[in-house]
From TrEMBL:
The keyword Nucleotide-binding does not apply. Signal peptide: none annotated. Keywords: Leucine-rich repeat, Repeat. This is Probable WRKY transcription factor 16. Pfam families: LRR_3, TIR. It comes from Camelina sativa. SUPFAM superfamilies: L domain-like, Toll/Interleukin receptor TIR domain. InterPro entries: Disease_R_plants, Leu-rich_rpt_3, LRR_dom_sf, TIR_dom, Toll_tir_struct_dom_sf. Residues 20-132 form the TIR domain.
Length: 438
């Protein structure tokens, strides 16, 4: 290769005068410094380029202000994990100031460095905001020791920079954490098994279906697929008994959710914005936070959870009474909710109940025995006309925009009241000396 063509390869053919008045860092290990690199440095200096040469353990080059770094992979460093870490630090320059990084392979096969460098790697954290490159479909095939994989973009406005022209054939089956923002495929690789996975985080993914290929999911505790707008199927078997959190917020095309009755450790379920979901077939009794804001919930098959032979109904709260550990219920904009039934049992730990903008809700039963309930939000319930009795220890009450005509006695614990735009309200019963804030 001629000197001029080599220099064009370094800077890019798009630059008409790439080398004039430039400064270049050459990063290498000691043995290459006095052989190949010395010749490369001499050639670049003859072209008027300022050269700084650094050993792979010397990271002061990051402050030299060069426009280009040439990273030399040779026999003595190409398979070193320390070298890989240093190379990652060079790549940070691209993210910070547009610095260009060009690898040069001296006496080694570029395809072999992947196997040597990464075979025993246990964790990878890759910020794609400063990277643009094509990924080999077998990139993870040899990474048998990988336990933690995090692919993310620190600049959320940037488009995905990793290209997979031939797809992705595999992921390590021993992974404990799989965190991949903007995952670009409709499915997980065919041979990938979730049996060792503890946490699955894939926000804003292109996943269309999530299916577990094994029933052995004893390790899995957390699933976050929020804003995966192509997701239409979420199929996690009931054997996933250790799962604690499921976050599917913003999965607008998801139409159904599996029964999780036997998932005794499930504490948080977030289906906010899953506007296509019409039913939740079964939940465990110890759930603490349930978010159904913006869903199309119509009915709950009570018989699945309670073993009852009663027919399905549109009385969602009657189903919820089976969950005595529930602390937060969010039903905002569950527009098809019609009725809240009496619940003299359960709800012992319920602190906040949000039924905001449930347009068809007409009445609320006696809630006096909900002794832990402190916040009740009924704002925007346009057809709400009747409330039997408020919770005895309630502190905040939101009634704005309701059709309520008469209110029961307020509890002495009330600290905040918002009754704006309650045009039909005729009377209010007060039993305390100090009026609440409003």
């Amino acid at each position: 290769m001629s000197r001029s063509s080599f220099l064009v390869d370094l800077y890019g053919a798009e630059s008409k005068n790439p080398i004039l008045n430039s400064s270049v860092n050459i990063i290498c290990e000691e043995t290459a410094r006095y052989s190949f690199v010395s010749h490369l440095s001499a050639a670049l200096r003859r072209e008027g380029i300022s050269i700084s040469v650094f050993a792979d353990t010397d990271l002061d080059y990051r402050n030299q202000g060069a426009t280009l770094s040439v990273v030399v992979f040779s026999e003595s460093n190409a398979f070193s994990l320390t070298w890989v870490d240093n190379f990652a630090k060079v790549l940070e320059l691209r993210r910070n100031n547009g610095h260009k990084v060009t690898p040069v392979f001296y006496g080694v096969d570029p395809s072999g460095t992947n196997q040597g460098c990464w075979r025993h790697r246990r964790d990878i954290s890759l910020d794609t905001s400063s990277l643009i490159f094509d990924v080999n479909p077998d990139a993870f095939k040899k990474m048998v020791s990988l336990r933690f994989l995090k692919v993310y973009n620190s600049y959320s406005e940037n488009a995905p920079r990793l290209n997979f022209p031939k797809g992705l054939n595999s992921l390590p089956c021993e992974l404990r954490l799989l965190h991949w923002e903007n995952y670009p495929f409709e499915y997980l690789p065919q041979g990938f098994d979730l049996h060792e996975l503890v946490e699955l985080n894939m926000p804003y993914s292109q996943l269309k279906k999530l299916r577990a290929r094994t029933k052995n999911l004893e390790m899995l505790k957390r699933i976050r697929l929020c804003h995966s707008q192509q997701l239409v199927e979420f199929d996690i078997p009931f054997e996933a008994q250790s799962i604690e959190l499921i976050d599917l917020q913003g999965c607008t095309r998801l139409e159904s959710f599996p029964a999780m009755t036997k998932s005794q450790h499930l504490r948080v379920l977030n289906l906010t914005g899953c506007r296509s979901i019409k039913t939740v077939p079964g939940l465990p009794p110890h759930i603490e936070e349930l978010n159904l804001q913006g869903t199309s919930i119509e009915e709950i098959p009570i018989s699945i959870v309670a073993g009852s032979s009663r027919p399905n109904c549109k009385e969602l709260m009657n189903h919820m009474k089976n969950f005595p550990g529930l602390e937060h219920v969010d039903l905002e904009k569950a527009k098809k909710l019609i009725k809240v039934s009496p619940y003299d049992q359960g709800f012992r730990k319920l602190v906040r109940l949000n039924i905001k903008d449930c347009f068809h809700l007409r009445s609320l039963p006696d809630m006096y025995n909900l002794e832990s309930l402190q916040v009740l939000d009924l704002s925007g319930c346009l057809h709400l006309e009747e409330i039997k009795c408020f919770p005895r220890n309630m502190k905040e009450l939101y009634l704005a925009g309701t059709s309520i005509r008469e209110l029961p006695y307020f509890p002495e614990s009330l600290e905040f009241l918002n009754a704006h735009d309650c045009y039909l309200l005729k009377s209010v019963w007060l039993l305390f000396e100090q009026l609440p804030r409003h």
